[in-house]
């Protein structure tokens, strides 16, 4: 990992596409496949087709911003790197929606009885209606997974807390009668059921594939080689052979300061923007030209970061025999910290009483004893 590069912005769409793929090649090995797929998918989606010019300009502007974000993350921006890993492992973003679709996808009926049960469930409403998006969801698997997630204490979920009251079937919250004692309208009831299921789906963190979940567990334990985790080192930037061009690029452009506000001209020199722009302050009084909040990624950092993300993941499989859904959430065993070699000197002079180490006494109860 090196300092953020101050490269000229790409002038063509193909150049932007190449720089995005080149920057994603410096991400961790387990996170790179999703980022590469997302870059290629979005580029090919708008490569052929009738796209509005305004919409295309907005997409190109977003792509330039994503390029700066990738450069900042690879240069040492921990917050942006964490956001990228959360998207890569399906805790936020488009991959989370794909994993959620796999969770609620109904398995194809194997027998005629299962097919009739699905059809009868769709026709449970007496009023005539067209099938909606909720009819295609496996609500039993969703509720089973949500109940396990509600019982698991997640450290900091990016989707908000999921309480046990949210993991209850929304059908039970629909009243049978309205305030006037009449039957509750079925169309309104169906709308409320869809709204409650959508609210539940917004809080669920869908399970990862079992192989990927196991590899994350190995990284969380510090076994990088077994998990196939590695971070490529950045190649040295090419230097231009045209010395005149470099000297001309370093000239002070006074016309910009005369025609535009200073804050807009020097926005790249801002301390918090240097990780995005790659600019260095050569006139700093303390001599440190590196941007603020730039950190060096170490093995300890990757282990701690991946462990925090692994604790937000689970793996789930369907049980064909019992018809249920088995869920296994990540749990970190508690390990008491041990004193370091330099810190042991503070405990050497303390007396050791063997009799106290074998006896465990609980706290004394206060209050007078009851008279017999």
From TrEMBL:
CDD domains associated with the record: Complex1_LYR_unchar
InterPro entries: Cup1-like_N
Bias (Low complexity): 154-164
Pfam families linked: LYRM2-like (PF20263)
Top-level taxon of the source organism: Eukaryota
Region (Disordered) residue spans: 154-180
Domain LYR motif-containing protein Cup1-like N-terminal: 16-99
Protein name, entry field: LYR motif-containing protein Cup1-like N-terminal domain-containing protein
Organism: Podospora pseudopauciseta
């Amino acid at each position: 990992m090196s300092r953020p590069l101050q490269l000229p912005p790409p002038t063509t769409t193909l150049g932007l596409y190449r720089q995005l793929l080149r920057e994603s090649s410096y991400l961790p090995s387990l996170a790179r496949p999703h980022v590469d797929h997302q870059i290629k998918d979005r580029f090919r989606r708008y490569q052929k087709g009738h796209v509005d010019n305004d919409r295309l300009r907005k997409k190109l502007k977003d792509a330039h911003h994503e390029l700066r974000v990738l450069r900042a993350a690879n240069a040492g921006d921990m917050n942006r790197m964490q956001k990228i890993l959360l998207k890569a492992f399906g805790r936020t973003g488009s991959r989370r929606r794909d994993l959620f679709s796999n969770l609620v996808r109904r398995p194809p009926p194997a027998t005629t009885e299962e097919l009739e049960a699905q059809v009868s469930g769709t026709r449970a409403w007496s009023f005539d209606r067209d099938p909606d998006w909720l009819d295609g969801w496996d609500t039993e698997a969703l509720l089973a997974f949500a109940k396990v997630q509600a019982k698991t204490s997640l450290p900091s979920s990016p989707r908000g807390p999921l309480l046990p009251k949210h993991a209850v079937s929304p059908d039970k919250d629909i009243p049978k009668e309205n305030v006037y004692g009449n039957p509750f309208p079925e169309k309104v009831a169906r709308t409320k059921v869809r709204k409650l299921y959508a609210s539940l789906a917004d809080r669920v963190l869908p399970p990862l594939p079992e192989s990927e979940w196991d590899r994350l567990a190995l990284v969380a334990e510090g076994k990088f080689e077994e998990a196939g985790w590695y971070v490529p080192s950045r190649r040295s930037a090419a230097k231009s052979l045209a010395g005149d061009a470099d000297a001309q690029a370093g000239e002070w452009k006074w016309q910009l300061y005369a025609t535009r506000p200073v804050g807009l001209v020097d926005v790249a020199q801002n301390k918090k923007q240097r990780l995005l722009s790659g600019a260095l302050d050569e006139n700093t009084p303390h001599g440190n030209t590196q941007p603020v909040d730039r950190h060096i990624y170490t093995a300890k950092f990757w282990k701690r970061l991946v462990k925090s993300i692994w604790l937000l993941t689970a793996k789930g499989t369907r049980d064909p025999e019992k018809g249920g859904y088995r869920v296994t959430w990540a749990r970190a065993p508690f390990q008491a910290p041990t004193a370091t070699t330099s810190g042991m000197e503070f405990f050497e002079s303390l007396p050791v009483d063997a009799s106290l180490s074998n006896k465990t006494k609980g706290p004394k109860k206060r209050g007078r004893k009851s008279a017999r």
